[in-house]
């Protein structure tokens, strides 16, 4: 290998050799730092997982049952469903796989400066726009990234890269609501994106950020043709393997394979039809049963038994760090940590997993770090102990138990089921809870304000990411209003370690604090699942629910 | 007559005004923010505020309502936020689908329930009456979604003779007409069960009247008594109820449309309401109110025809 390795890769390699670094975490870090996935796997002494499902067959139509949404503005998409259609035409720069390893996409390789502030990005030269046949260039990539980071666009990519590359500034307008000057943001430096040549550019941030390659896989980060001004629709240009030929929001979208070969090989399918079946899970299974669709985007728990019984259908699932947590504000009776502990002791997470999620996933452990997180530390599984819960309540001054109310949503169905199961379990310990089910839109208005609520949390690759978002004192998404100084200090320490073993040691203490003092009951980790016809090959379900059709084929 | 029509038209206009304003105000009061909904959970507050202002949502409610009303009077129903299309286009498309489904259902339900209701009611407590009544009450008491799921289990999963969803697009295996079978069957069974009981009760009532007994004693054949004398009278009360079914068939099919993934008006309204797509909800409400008022008008006129004693 002629390319020189990033010093952190060498350091990480040494730590792995010393047994201090987990192999999976090494893979993630090494690939983020620019090592190819194949090389990283061999450095880690592992073999890269291959898909062994036979030889792909060219031809055929695949029909996917999924909501068909408005696709006009990819950079502001807020739903995976929309990206799943657009992604077939307008691709991402990178691809983070099922194994958490980030691989090249339109980007061929990347190199980070030792302080992780400056990233040199090299594009592949053989990716061609379908219309015009022009090669995908550094100008194209920079145009897209700048557009996503423009406040006028309204892309969620801003939230991801704000600390790295944006700065705030005051506008001359006064906000009538706050009587202060409005604040906006802009690139922190004119050289934030610097073109080196037609296929190379540099991203210069103001702080260190390891996650740049992963951020390029953020769902709205589609690479659009600048000539189309940020809009997307039927016939739009793209570097991807398919072309959108028909779109009716709420009904159907149709994609056909491009004529010239795609840079990564494939596609095998001639045509993809996306059919909007609405939100009813019974309709999804009915469509599968009568072979009106070959695949469903995501399954619902209520309809899983019916789908499992269809002989031509297979259930695909993947473990994730998706969850929902029952968390309390530190107000009476939950201002006493013994009452919060009682809530955890009264919960049987294995039973909740079985009832609410039909056993798909793994039981929660009440600290918000999942087994799929690299820095997960095993601090012992907390089994249900009703007697202890009762004793804790009595000690806290509630010998007759407590009465309270929990707010939750009716959709997705497993959330309400989980709440109902927990409420039954809590009852036995004298914690009598009324369930207040409110529509999703209403719940998201009050999710940080209700004293006791059940809130869903998406999958994130690292445990410390969620802890920082949800439990740090004063964090915008700290929905429990929880504050623990020791926790904050340890969290900052953990975030500073690239070495996962060092981080794990601190995370173990963080987890212990959450068990002792924390505001949350974490009942389960979900497995994401969907259904496909057995004739659909080459497909693996991804923890982000992204679908990539280029590799998929239909067996004859 | 002219005065009646004038009064009714005025009535319609006032109701439409009241309904549009109420919907507008209620939408305002329900929680949730369109801008946040559009930009997604990861967007920053500034971005949400920016879009909020751009959409003009920071102006007072009355100003926005007046503007909306002005546009509607000019024939502009606005643009849908979720479909990103002119509301009129979305509405006409979905309404067309629903009217087609409703027309088929109506064409099946009315003759079927009149026939069954009259057959059951003409000989009270006969075995035929018992049989039909039991069937009708079973159908009427099973909710649509349960009926739909039963039928799916039998005809789609078990027998595999019918398609499970109705996206209104033919595939090699399932032509479009077959996609109508299950939705129509579910609506018909559910709705006819109710209508049959209604018509039967009215028929029983009429068959007990002295003029029917007189006709029978006069030696008139039973069939003629039923068709000539009893039926016409027995249908006056159910007539209103039959017309009310039109309302239900246009705006109440949401359960069936959702269950069978049918791209109709009810499903569109449900989704628009959940997403706070106010332009679509308003236009849908306008249609629903119009349908209700028109069936009322039709009802009054129909009464006049059926019963010459009634004058309006």
Span between N and C termini of chain A? Answer: 42 Å
**Average pLDDT figure of chain B:** 87
- Give the biggest sheet of chain A: 8 strands, mixed
Low-confidence stretches of chain A: none
Helix content estimate of chain B: over 70%
- The CATH homologous superfamily name of the largest domain in chain A equals Dipeptide-binding Protein, Domain 3
- The CATH architecture assignment of the largest domain in chain B turns out to be Orthogonal Bundle
Properties at a glance:
A: 556 residues, alpha+beta, D-Maltodextrin-Binding Protein, domain 2, Dipeptide-binding Protein, domain 1, 8-stranded mixed beta sheet, globular, B: MetI-like fold, 2 domains, 14 helices, 76% helix, flat
Protein topology:
The complex is a heterodimer of chains A (556) and B (312).
Chain A: H1 7-17, H2 23-32, H3 37-43, E1 61-65, H4 80-86, E2 94-96, E3 102-104, E4 107-112, E5 118-123, H5 138-148, H6 157-165, E6 166-175, E7 180-187, E8 193-197, E9 200-204, H7 212-215, E10 242-248, E11 252-257, E12 271-275, H8 281-289, E13 295-296, H9 304-308, E14 313-319, E15 323-328, H10 337-345, H11 349-357, E16 361-363, H12 386-395, E17 402-408, H13 413-428, E18 431-437, H14 440-446, E19 452-457, H15 463-470, H16 485-495, H17 500-516, E20 520-521, E21 524-533, E22 536-537, E23 553-554
Parallel strand pairs in A: 1-12, 1-13, 17-18
Antiparallel strand pairs in A: 2-3, 4-5, 5-9, 6-7, 8-9, 10-11, 11-12, 13-21, 14-21, 15-19, 15-20, 16-21, 22-23
Helix pairs in contact in A: 1-2, 10-12, 11-13, 16-17
Chain B: H1 2-29, H2 34-39, H3 45-54, H4 61-73, H5 87-122, H6 127-141, H7 144-158, H8 176-207, H9 210-217, H10 222-234, H11 236-251, H12 254-259, H13 265-274, H14 278-306
């Amino acid at each position: 290998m002629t390319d020189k390795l990033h010093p952190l890769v060498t350091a990480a390699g040494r730590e792995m050799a010393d047994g201090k670094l987990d192999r999976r975490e090494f893979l993630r870090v090494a690939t983020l730092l620019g090592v190819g996935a194949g090389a990283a796997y061999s450095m880690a002494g592992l073999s890269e997982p291959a898909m062994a499902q036979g030889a792909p067959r060219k031809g055929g139509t695949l029909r996917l049952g999924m909501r068909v949404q408005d696709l006009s503005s990819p950079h502001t998409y807020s739903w995976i469903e929309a990206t799943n259609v657009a992604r077939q035409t307008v691709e991402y720069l990178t691809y983070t796989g099922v194994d958490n390893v980030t691989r090249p996409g339109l980007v061929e390789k990347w190199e980070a400066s030792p302080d992780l502030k400056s990233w040199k990005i090299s594009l592949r030269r053989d990716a061609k726009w379908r219309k015009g046949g022009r090669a995908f260039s550094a100008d194209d990539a920079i145009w897209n990234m700048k557009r996503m980071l423009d406040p006028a666009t309204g892309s969620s990519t801003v939230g991801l890269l704000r600390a790295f590359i944006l700065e705030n500034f005051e506008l001359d307008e006064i906000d009538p609501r706050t009587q202060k000057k409005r604040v906006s943001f802009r690139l922190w430096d004119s050289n934030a994106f610097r073109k080196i040549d037609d296929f190379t550019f540099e991203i210069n941030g103001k702080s260190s950020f390891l996650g740049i390659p992963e951020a390029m896989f953020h769902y709205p980060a589609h690479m659009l043709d600048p000539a189309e001004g940020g809009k997307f629709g039927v016939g739009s240009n793209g570097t991807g393997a398919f072309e959108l030929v028909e779109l009716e929001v709420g009904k159907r979208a149709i994609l056909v394979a491009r004529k010239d070969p795609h840079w990564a090989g494939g596609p095998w399918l001639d045509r993809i039809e996306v059919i909007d079946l609405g939100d009813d899970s019974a309709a999804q299974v009915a469509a599968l049963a009568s072979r009106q669709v070959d695949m469903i985007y995501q399954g619902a728990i209520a309809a899983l038994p019916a789908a499992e019984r269809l002989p031509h259908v297979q259930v695909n699932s993947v473990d994730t760090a998706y969850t929902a947590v029952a968390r309390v504000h530190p107000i009476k009776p939950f201002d006493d940590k013994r009452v919060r502990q009682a809530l955890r002791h009264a919960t049987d997470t294995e039973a909740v997993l079985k009832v609410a999620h039909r056993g798909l996933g793994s039981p929660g452990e009440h600290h918000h770090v999942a087994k799929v997180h690299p820095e997960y530390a095993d601090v012992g599984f907390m089994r249900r102990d009703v007697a202890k819960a009762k004793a804790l309540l009595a000690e806290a001054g509630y010998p007759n138990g407590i009465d309270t109310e929990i707010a939750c949503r009716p959709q997705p169905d497993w959330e309400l089921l989980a709440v109902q199961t927990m409420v039954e379990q809590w009852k036995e310990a004298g914690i009598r809870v009324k369930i207040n089910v409110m529509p999703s839109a209403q719940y998201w208005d009050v999710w940080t304000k209700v004293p006791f609520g059940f809130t869903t949390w998406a999958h994130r690759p690292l445990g410390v990411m969620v802890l920082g978002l949800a439990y740090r004192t004063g964090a915008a998404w700290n929905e429990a209003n929880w504050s623990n100084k020791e926790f904050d200090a340890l969290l900052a320490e953990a975030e500073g370690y690239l070495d996962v073993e060092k981080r794990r040691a601190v995370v173990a203490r963080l987890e212990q604090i959450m068990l002792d003092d924390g505001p949350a009951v974490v009942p389960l980790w979900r497995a994401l699942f969907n259904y496909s016809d057995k004739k659909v090959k080459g497909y693996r379900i991804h923890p982000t629910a992204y679908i990539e059709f280029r590799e998929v084929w239909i067996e004859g | 007559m002219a005065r009646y029509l004038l009064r009714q038209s005025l009535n319609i206009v006032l109701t439409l005004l009241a309904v549009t304003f109420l919907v507008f105000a209620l939408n305002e009061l329900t929680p949730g923010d369109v801008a946040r909904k559009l930009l997604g959970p990861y967007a920053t507050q500034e971005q949400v505020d920016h879009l909020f202002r751009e959409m003009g949502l920071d102006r007072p409610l009355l100003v926005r309502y007046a503007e909306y009303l002005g546009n509607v009077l000019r024939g502009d129903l606005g643009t849908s936020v979720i479909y990103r299309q002119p509301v009129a286009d979305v509405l006409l498309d979905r309404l067309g689908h629903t009217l087609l489904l409703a027309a088929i259902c109506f064409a099946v339900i009315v003759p079927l329930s009149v026939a069954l209701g009259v057959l059951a009611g003409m000989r009270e407590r006969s075995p035929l009456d018992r049989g039909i009544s039991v069937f009708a009450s079973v159908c009427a008491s099973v909710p649509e979604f349960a009926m739909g799921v039963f039928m799916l289990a039998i005809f789609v999963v078990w027998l595999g003779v019918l398609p499970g969803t109705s996206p209104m697009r033919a595939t090699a295996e399932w032509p479009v007409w077959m996609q109508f079978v299950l939705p129509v069957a579910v609506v018909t069974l559910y709705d006819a069960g109710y209508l049959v009981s209604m018509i039967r009760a009215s028929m029983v009532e009429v068959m007990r009247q002295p003029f029917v007994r007189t006709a029978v004693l006069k030696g008139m054949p039973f069939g003629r008594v039923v068709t000539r004398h009893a039926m016409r009278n027995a249908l006056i009360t159910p007539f209103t109820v039959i017309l009310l079914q039109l309302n239900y068939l246009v705006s109440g099919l949401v359960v069936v449309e959702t269950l069978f993934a049918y791209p109709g008006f009810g499903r569109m309204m449900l989704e628009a309401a959940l997403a706070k797509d106010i332009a679509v909800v308003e236009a849908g409400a306008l249609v629903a109110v119009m349908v209700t008022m028109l069936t009322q008008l039709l009802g009054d006129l129909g009464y006049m025809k059926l019963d010459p004693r009634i004058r309006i």
